[in-house]
Amino acid sequence: MTVKKDHYLVVSAGTIQGVFPQVPAEFAGLEMLDYTGHLVIPGLTDLHIHGPQYVFRGLSMDRELLDWLNFRTFPEEAKYRDPEYARRAYRLFAQDLRQGGTVNAVVFGTIHKEGTRILMEELEAAGLRAYVGKVNMDRNSPDDYREETEDSAADTRAWIQETAGAFSQVKPILTPRFLPTCSDRLMELLGQLQREFALPVQSHLSENQGEIAWVRELCPQADFYGDGYQRFGLFGGDVPTIMAHCVYSGEEELLRMKERGVYIAHCPQSNTNIASGIAPVRRFLDMGIRVGLGSDVAGGHSASIFRTMAEAVQVSKLRWRLVDQTLRPLTAAEAFYLGTEGGGSFFGRSGSFQKGYAADILVLDESRMPYMEELTVAERLERYLYLCGEKDILHKFVGGRMLF
Ligand SMILES: [Zn+2]
User: Fold this and answer.
1) How far is the CA of 270 from the centre of ligand 1 (A)?
2) How far is the CA of 395 from the centre of ligand 1 (A)?
3) Which of 59, 270, 319, 398 supports an S-S bond with 300, CB 3.0-4.6 Å?
4) DSSP H helical segments within 64-183, as ranges?
5) pTM of the prediction?
6) Are 313 and 320 in contact (CB under 8 A)?
7) Using CA atoms, how far apart are residues 16 and 5, in angstroms rounded to an integer?
8) What is the strand order of the sheet 241-245 is part of?
């Protein structure tokens, strides 16, 4: 993390030109916005969030993953077959993201193609950059929330074609929910769609021990959980891929992810709430695996990536103290990196103030957080991660455009 005090951040044509102690002569004609005294940071990236789960965040937090899915999540997601319901709920979701620090989001929808299109419309209207996925699931799901295999692929194809070119900042991403809900045949069809449309992929991986044992039974041919995705061409390499969680990924799985450039979305709040465990992020970083942060609403209850940063530090300390003392805890600066450039790089040049990056900028408001003695800039940022609320952002810019 680089800190500059009382400098000028120069932006033109939606792109960062650099950070300078004085405005260079070539930029002297640009309009000046004065945020003296405020923290100014790159916009944040949420690599893993479920749009339809936003409205029930904070509920059923006493259940573990598979139980939580069946009891709360699947019945709620089934409601998005109604476009009117989807519109109202997704508007709440998108407007909340707009008010927070997230600039880029990678989002799960539901199995419904119309509802998922509505989710894309709402995110675009909110001014955010996003990848959005129509979820696929053809097994181990309730009758009213399950697709027939061929219909699932046909709907996904129609959704890709119907939304192609419809949005400037929102793009589709293939989204098999996870291996337990996707038959081999469906995965094969999704692999074909991936090759045809060159789409990125998102899913879940090695989150919970019961889930991993189940995948072993369902996919006996796979060497390990992640290999079950790779067999269908949906696990990195030429295919930009995000896998959420990876709490229990073994050595082989992690090496494969590193080799194939698969991103891990680390979701500390969700790992805590649904009692999955604590992902070894220090290990991911030491191995050189690409990592960003996910709120995983509604496994996570808050969509704030600031809060996720603080929690990434906190859970890493518990892991270090209770599980494995060879993996030192994350620092605030490392967590900040994960929530900015770490995840932002999935979107290209986002999450940094280096020249050529998108002008994704947050101006922070610390007025609710008084202090007695002068703090350094880095101390103010650390404190902000722990103390800020949803309303403590003064201004937000996406690609140079001011949202507020
Ligand atoms: Zn998830």
Assistant:
1) 8
2) 29
3) 270
4) 65-68, 74-78, 83-99, 113-125, 149-163
5) 0.97
6) no
7) 17
8) 201-205, 241-245, 263-266, 291-293
Question: 127-156 burial, b if ≥16 CB within 10 A, otherwise e?
Answer: bbbbbbbbbbbbbbbeeebbbebeebbebb
11 CB burial (10 A radius; 0-12, 13-18, 19+) = buried
Domains and CATH numbers, the chain: 8-41+357-402 (2.30.40.10), 44-347 (3.20.20.140)
Compute CA distances 195 → 148, 149, 202, whole Å. 22, 18, 15
> How many whole angstroms from its chain centre is CA 312?
14
Ligand 1 center to 23 CA (angstroms): 44
Distance of alpha carbon 174 from alpha carbon 99, whole angstroms: 27
Q: Give one word for 2, left, alpha or beta, with left for phi > 0 and alpha for psi -120 to 50.
A: beta
Q: Give 347-391 pLDDT, tens digit per residue.
A: 999 999 999 999 999 999 999 999 999 999 999 999 999 999 878
What tens digit of pLDDT does each residue of 62-98 get?
A: 888 889 999 999 999 999 999 999 999 999 999 999 9
